[in-house]
Amino acid sequence: MDPALALMLLEPHDDAAILACATTVEPVRPDIAAALRQAAAAPVAERATILDRARAIWAEAEAAPAALHPFFELPASLQQEFHSHHRSLVAEVEALALVLDTGDAAPLGALRRLAHSLKGEAGIVGLDALVGRWHALENDVEDPAVPLRAKAARFLEAVSATEVDLRTLADGRIPTEAPPGAGGNAPPATPPPRAQAPTAEPVVHAPPPKAAAAATDRVTRDEETVSILGEFLMEAADGVSQADEILMRAEQGDAETGDLDAIFRAFHSMKGVAAALEVEPVAILAHAMEDLLTRCRDGVLPFHGDVVSALLDGTQLMRAMVEDTRAAVERHLAFAMPARADEVLMRLRAHTGGMRVPAPTLPTPAAPHVAAPMPMSMPIAVPAPAETAVPAATPAWLAQVVEAPRAVAVTGANAAASARIAVAAPEARVPGPSPAETPAGARIRETVKVDLERVDLLVELIGELVIAESMVAGRSESSAAPELRNALRHLTKIVRDLQRMGIGLRMVPLVGVFQKMRRLVRDLCVKVGKEAVLVTQGDGIEMDRSLVEQVADPLVHILRNAMDHGLETPQDRVAAGKPAQGTIVLSASHEAGNIVIEVRDDGRGMDRARIVARAVERGLIEPDADLADAEVFELIFAPGFSTAERVTEVSGRGVGMDVVKRNVEAMGGRVRVSSVTGAGSTVRLTVPLTLAIIDGMLIGCGGERFVVPTRSIVESIRAESRMLVTYAGRHEVVDIRGELYPLVRLHPVLDIPARSVRIEDGLILVVEGITRRFAILVDEVVSRQQVVIKAMDDRLVDTRFYSGACILADGHAGLILNIDALLAQSDGREATGGAA
Amino acid sequence: MSTPTTGALARLAGKYLTFMLDGTCYGFGIHDIREIIVPMDVARVPRAQPWIRGVINLRGKIIPVMDLRARFLVPQARVSEQTVVIVVQKQFADGESIFGIEVDQVLEVLAVSADDLSLPPDLGGGGDEGTRCMLATARAGERVLFLLNLERIVTDVPAPSA
Three-state SS for A103? Predict the structure, then answer.
């Protein structure tokens, strides 16, 4: 058989076929053959993924392979790392640039450093287009002639361009040079600026007068700093281990090419980060190591013998320092140089001849700080390390920080830390560096990097476990022996705990999305000529990672509407007695197991009369319809309503609102709109915490099964014929304990054969719709079960009546009913007298 | 109706997965095909398009399955031993879709060269269901093969009747 076809026909459980296929493809594609053998050896559950990968490799080979850029010759893990790190740096740039855009110069220093790091990283992997871009920015940022806003704009442009480039890269192509004008175009050959950045540098503070006491001083570090320190220490420990391995090899005389570079990079970045975080002991030692390694790399010193043994002493000390630092953080102490540091530093510096600076000798209280007044102006005696192939070349300030002889105590205002805080939450904490008092016992949490795919797989498997468990528990409820039932109950508890933890693994804070929205509002202000500020609240609230992605799209639509139609022009606002600048509040909060995301503007509000008029015009409602406000606002979600140009221009709200509604419902959420004329509108999204699993009622209707989310169901009761009242021959209403609910018969609405024509043959579910409660007539309720929610592709299938798909307890696909759509359809049928 | 010109024809050369439907041989470009599975129980989707058989759980993903007979308006047939579902992973302008297409039988993966290709015949009438989805015809030995445009099969559908 054709190998391509054979590959496609493979089924995960068919060992023989997989192995046979491996043999077939062996001569042409040994790599695919290997993958297949690996699949056959793996557990069946994991095979599908491996097979998919093999198919993907094959498909790629079918397309013509391009000449390989050095970037693509890197191992996949490194490429991945480059992507994720670059992306996170770019996100930092974006956050800081937005602060800059408000006219606050504080982030300039941090931005320059980021641009510098980005340039270095891109340079290492040979992405020249990116190097040029960041280099130009690095120069720009220094230029006092360029106004802050313009700088911010250039950075933001560069962020967008880089995002595009990263996507290009992910698609397997090398981004090309940006068109001139994008973020300045200084020739990349100019050496990086070495001048002092004007602001926000972590200033080298003069040694505190009572240096001797510093080691026992309690130091306050806020939570954010602690977590950054934790990350740093983890990386540092990794770096030290790697260095040890290399040095040990070097001692044996079999250092490999690239070893020196790798170890150099490790200490270089350790030095940079340690200095920025003001962990001086580590910075000083790393700097000494780096100096020595530079000499080795330049061929001035041999990379073996004495030099290597000095370096090994260094790594040993570094290991101890990392531990000390961790302890110091946990006990709120200042960082101190260990006693034997002097000796090691001397040894290291003996080789570089860098004896001119006495090592800071904090533990000797008597040591007078003679050199105290000179740190800022002291010339750097040792030439800065070569900057050609390293990610982050040493900026001048850093070298000074490291070289400055001073007491190694961190006290007072913590400039570097406050710059970091600005990165994490630019809106709230930029002005005024006021490190919050941390509660006792600032523990550094140990973390482990895990491949997202594995997390997803784990969560998926837990989902399946939950289903399997509920199947077993359901069957044994009546039949099993008591001890088995007890054991099962215990199992149920464990499975629930596991489920909670699994879901927790995928939780990420909303801050990233909110930051994007801030950017969006800023860009829109320029575009639509309005003034607005976006205030965000609750961006620390966590949500399932996939939901965070899905919520971004609707938010973009909503904010566009708010900017475009909700907010008035500055002139109109002033005329209406409002401040010229509009305010949009984007907030997130927890509410009854859901997350509520609200967008509230202080614009003109929605024009009820216009919406009604337009809806009548479009035949959505009868001219004489008497609608509550909620029902009127619901009309803007009608498909197509949005595209009506005139309505959106005059009364606003509508562009893409049907899309918003669809997207949110696909996530199992709801949208509500409210508005006060002249005072603004609020769009409220209620979305579940997690996509993974919901509680559902499995109902039967005409031989089909559907899921109704339990949270929508108010009650279910066996109907009696006397409950049914018919108005005007077609509007059916059920009377449940004196409450009247409109009745929706599921069979005619879904066009499936009915079993229960008389209501007493079926079951009535009272459900909570967006606008009102109503009753649904179904044949039976099969069971209540937890279902794993899955997205449903609406490109091929008309999914109007379903809010999503799911996997039922028996493993089959199921559909989740969209009850609001059912109600709308039923209303339409009744209006035309078409009740079946 | 944009029919491919002769220049465009050459670009259609490549590998195709061929299959039978109602006695006729068709082909899909191989790069869009993800795998081939045996038909499984579907969950029907009431009120969906008539050619949607339903949705299935394909190892944790819910994908729709299209009945190509219904889509091409050819008479329904019994599901046989040979009936299979071709799982397609297709990139569209606004994202990717994975879905199944049920056909009578798969044949082989065929390399079609530019010489084997010719423009689709003019079937008149602006093309009814099915004919609009044709990319080109190819000759494979004795057999005539219709190469299909997957995108059109999905997107170029009659408007739903309300």
Answer: coil
